[in-house]
Amino acid sequence: MKYVSLSLWMEPEIRHPMHQFVMDHDGYEASYLLRWNDMGAAVQTLLFHVDGWPVEPYRAALKHAPRVQEYAISPCPDDSFYLYVRGRPTDADTDLINAFTQAGLVIVSPVAYRADGTTELTLVGPGGTVQQAVETVPDGVSVDVREVGEYDSRRLDTGAALTDRQFEAVAAAVDCGYYGNPREGSVDDIADELGCAPGTAAEHLRKAEAHVMADILEQRPESTA
User: What are the HVO-0513-like N-terminal domain coordinates in residue numbering (predicted)?
Assistant: First the structure.
């Protein structure tokens, strides 16, 4: 069983308006589609985790999004929030879902809608169906195949919910010896590598660590002792 990690780019005229909102507003890095009911349904029910703040501009945009029928927001203590939403998918969303599901592939959560305009997702299924799916994506969507290999959820899940900057912060921390014993690098070193303020670097690193630690706890079986 194979997996393929894709990076998609949708033309602005077919991009979902809430993805466009993340692109157009500072403070929002990505929104992650975590759970859904039936991706092929005329009205979908979806659960997102939005890595961004503040909530109110996002809420105001939701009120005016033409395909959103109902929503609820639950703020988190780390300047992010969960979003429950019911609404009608765009025609491009429906065509894209059909391209993947009709080819016999399974979409693995999370699906990341990033501030740079890309949509990143992982598909799992027989190797021969991957090319079929890529060839049938709708017009206005370009596809970049990032990685293909044997599926192993432990390998994919831990880093999937990290934004690009969070991943860069972790990579810089490892490179400078921040996680060494004894510790050699500092947050200032990470900030220099990222080209940002130390407080910003520390925030990226803290969010990345929180995601990874939560994933480790979820993947470990509960003790029966």
Answer: 16-151
Single-letter residue type at 145: V
Domain residue spans of the chain = 2-151, 155-219
Measured CA to CA, the distance from residue 144 to residue 157 in angstroms comes to 20
Residue 30 three-state SS = strand
Enter the tokens of residue 120: 């990143």
Domain 155-219: CATH class, spelled out: mainly alpha
What pLDDT digit, counting tens, does each position of 49-108 carry? Answer: 999 999 999 999 999 998 899 999 999 887 889 999 999 988 888 888 888 877 778 888
Mean pLDDT of 199-221: 75
Q: What are 6's strand-pairing partners?
A: 121, 145
Q: Are 69 and 84 in contact (CB under 8 A)?
A: no
Q: Report the sign of the C-alpha dihedral through residues 81, 84, 89, 90, in that order.
A: negative
Task: Using the CB atoms, write b or e for 90-123: b if 16+ within 10 Å.
Answer: bebbbbbbbbbbebebebbbbbbbbbebbbbbbb
What is the enclosing helix (H) or strand (E) of 176? helix 164-176
Q: What is the pTM of this model?
A: 0.72
Tokens representing 40 are: 């092929």
